[in-house]
Every structure is written in structure tokens, then in C-alpha cells.
Amino acid sequence: EKGGYDHFMLKEIYEQPRAIKDTYRGRLLADQGLIRMAGIDLNMEKFLNANRIIIVACGTSWHAGLVAEYIFEDLARIPVEVEYASEFRYRNPVITDKDVLIAISQSGETADTLAAIKLAKEKGAFVFGVCNVVGSSIARESDAGAYTHAGPEIGVASTKAFTTQITVLTLMALKLAKAKGVFSESRYHEYLCELETIPGKVEKSLESNTLIEIIADVYKDSTNCLYLGRGYNFPVALEGALKLKEISYIHAEGYPAAEMKHGPIALIDEHMPVFVIATKKGHYEKVVSNIQEIKSRKGKIIAIVTEGDEQVKDLADHVIEVPETLESLTPLLTTIPLQLISYHIAVMRGCNVDQPRNLAKSVTVE
Ligand code: M6R
């Protein structure tokens, strides 16, 4: 049932090219210049007239929500707030019938997320669910929604659910950008075509697996790790750190790269591995200067870079390449090596990768 892989997590990491394709199959019609999503088409007015979009989720799904915040604001020019469902539901939030709430949940059963959507519905907001499990409670409670179609995710550490959530949310943002008229025909077309290349580029990113295993062996005994990224890749840094924490039990923190100098830089010495996402698009030069700051404090740098990068190669201790793509699509690629590094470190430390201690696949109690 693990399809020849040692663990479900590894199987699910490798399933991502297919899972992403399944997510956009029948929706992304690049040759017709069309994205078809019934849940959006039928409720277009709700989205276009919304004052703002509120995204609620927990854990990895919350990280997908953060990526979506960048995508929706950047592409569709709709204001977005991203909330932990557990905080949102208890802080007497201001919600009106002009709000659209998007709930993101792999399982569709997370108690806090479910409670958050019930609250939003009571206040008259329109609720859109992005779930993986068909017929789940959140899917049923939502006014409309879009499934991720990632297939069953068994490993407690979420992998393919994350990249397929980002895929669905990207399709939604593109559709709204087009409907709002903020996207030219040619830009829209460029995005649709580029999205179609993503499964192949994820495949390519997975080819770094052997290199990543070697890197994992170097850092497997670390007690702390930092993860840094900017812009679209800031949430990816958070997600990379969460993945390492939950399956290898190594303390890890994700930060926006520029925040490093407001505190975490004090932690950096020769024993601190720092994973930095430094893809060519999006504040590249600024990330390079962050890398220089880490280097001058003797931190160990593992950089995720765009294929062919030369500048970071000279500074970093290790570089892992991912193919080039549009900036807003980079999280779909930069996530892959971070999933693999966590996986290999956890295996080397003898941890129970698929069922880490103290964790459940779906958190149905608050
Ligand atoms: O099923 P959900 O997406 O609602 O679950 C949310 C979190 O519990 C989940 O993402 C959790 O953080 C994972 N273990 C992360 O790998």
C-alpha cells in the first residue's frame, strides 16, 4: 500500500506531480484560455463584491493560507487576512455579510476551523471551503468550495495536501484576477501555461533527493535550525520548520528573512544550520545580503536556489536547485526539498515518520 516506498510520507512527497495535475485537471484549460471552477463561477459576484477575504486554517493549511494571501493580493488585488482558526473564533472578530471566508483543511474535520466557519456563517459571511476529503464536515458546512483532489494523505506530516491547496488557491486567484480585469489576456495566458509546467518542475525538484540525503546526514544531529524566506517564500520557511519539528523533533523556527536582524540573528553560530530560500525572483539581492550576514557569523547555510544560480553557490555550504518559474508559483517548488530534508533527517534519527509522537492526523478536538 506504500507503493514500494518505506513510508507514506515519502510516497506522498513523490505523488505531488500527479496530485497537482489531478488538482487542475478539468479546471485549467490553457488551450482555451480558461479556468473552470463551478464553486467560483456560481458565486463570482460574492467574490467580486467582497470587502476582503478572510482565510482561516490551522497548521500546514494555515501556511497555504499565507501563500494565498500573497497570491490573492498580488494577482487579484483583493485584500486578504489570514487567521489561525483557534484565535479567530474566540476573539470576537468583526465579520459582515460583505466578507468572504475561505476555510482551508486537508481533513475537513479540524475542530477549530469548523467552529470558525460556523461563526462566520452566523454573521452572514459567505463561506468557501478548500478541503481534500470529499464529504467532510467543513466541505458540508461551506456554502461552496473546491476540492484539492490530492488523494488520501496518510502521513501525519502534510505534504501533497499543501502543494495542492496552493494549486487550488492559485487557480481561484487567477480566475478572480481575470474577472476583475486586472490581468491582461497575455499575462493570464502566461500563468495558465506556466501552471501546466509545474508537475514536470516538481518532478525535476525531486531529483535532488540523493543530494538532500547527503545534506541530511550532515545536519541530522542538530538541536536547532532556522528557516528563512521572503515574500512568497516566507510561508514556505514556516512550513519547512514545522515539517522538521513534527517528524524529527528538532527545534526549528521559520522567519521572514529580514526579521532575522530583529532577534534570531543572536542565535547564529557555527552550530546553527540555516535553510534559506533564495530563488532568483522576488527580493533575490536582499536574500543574498541576508545570507552574507549569516555567513559572517559562521552559520551553516543550506540554500534553495534557482537552477544555474552562481552568486549564492559561492556563499552557501550547500545549494539545492529548483527549476525557474513565475515568482508566485515558486512555493510549489521550493517546498519539495524542505519536505525531503525533514523526511531524511527523521529517518536517520530513527523517528516514526508517519506517526510522530503526540500528533494525530486530524485534530477533531480543540
Ligand atoms: O486537516 P487540516 O488541514 O485542517 O489540518 C490542519 C493541521 O492540523 C495540519 O496541517 C497539521 O499541522 C499537520 N500535521 C502538519 O503537517
TrEMBL record:
A single BP term in Gene Ontology: amino sugar biosynthetic process
Reaction it catalyzes: D-fructose 6-phosphate + L-glutamine = D-glucosamine 6-phosphate + L-glutamate
Keywords, sorted A to Z: Aminotransferase, Cytoplasm, Glutamine amidotransferase, Repeat, Transferase
Active-site residues (renumbered): 361 (for fru-6p isomerization activity)
Annotated Gene Ontology cellular component terms: cytosol
Main location (coarse class): cytoplasm
Cellular compartments annotated: Cytoplasm
GO MF term (any one): glutamine-fructose-6-phosphate transaminase (isomerizing) activity
Enzyme class: transferase
This protein's record includes keyword Ribosomal protein: no
Domain SIS: 43-182, 215-356
EC number: 2.6.1.16
Transferase among keywords: yes
Subunit structure comment from the entry: Homodimer.
Functional description taken from the UniProt entry: Catalyzes the first step in hexosamine metabolism, converting fructose-6P into glucosamine-6P using glutamine as a nitrogen source.
Protein name per Swiss-Prot or TrEMBL: Glutamine--fructose-6-phosphate aminotransferase [isomerizing]
Protein source organism: Maribacter ulvicola
Residues of the full protein shown: 249 to 614 of 614
